[in-house]
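ugh ok fine here u go
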Amino acid sequence: MKQNTQTVIPKQTHQGWQGSLDLVYARHHNKTQVIHSQMQAPLKVQRPFYPEKEAVCHSVVLHTAGGIVGGDRLSQNIHLKPNAQALITTAAAGKVYRTQGLEARQNIQIQVEAGACLEWLPQETIVFNGAVYRQELRVELAPGASWLGWEITRFGRSARGEKFLQGEWRSHTEIWQQARPLWIDRQWLPGGEESVYSPHALAGQPIVGTLAWVGQPVSLELIEKARQLWSDKERQGRSGVTPLMSGLLCRYRGSSTAEVRNWFTDVWQLLRFSCLGRSVVKPRVWQI
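structure:
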């Protein structure tokens, strides 16, 4: 069994941070462990947690600089060996600050081998007015592997009345299996009045959210249950649930982080129990 290694390398240029995070998980004697970690500031990962016994490893990623600025180039490489089970979240809401024109970019590459499952559940990202940000996430799934991920984005510091009137946001997600695309999602939102108020964009709401489960077929009954989880409670936003090739997709548009996260957590619980045979255990960092 390869011993756990951890390296921290600080590096910053005058144009922004050049940060990276590399994590490898492996399962040995029914315990999923981080067998390799290499970090380059401002990205860092806390020591593993095991709130649901040893089968599932919980990891918390930190951005030690407090937020992303123009010129930042961040990369993450996550690799789950066969049968590893991991949940990755973030320590706090992410922030993408206003820029003077330089684009901030984050690239995330994930490899999930046979029998492994990654739950990718970062906390909300707040995109400030004037930010220019691009995130690319690509997941390679082996046969028998699965991935559940969500993204919750707030455009503008809405508590201060700020709207996303300048800047640009791009989010590109691709899930592949044996050179075949299972789901490709490309979103682009330029800052401006049209994007803020158009019914085809934000429709006056500051928050959008996406949850995707990919790796196992989902029955029509399960899709209806996910829809019912939304309609069972009085909610203010709008939602949608659709099937994917070997999966399920949920969309949200509204004004409440709590509303979207509560619904996503309900869907996560449904999928976890139905497809993985276990109940949700929320990361304790969410309680802080």
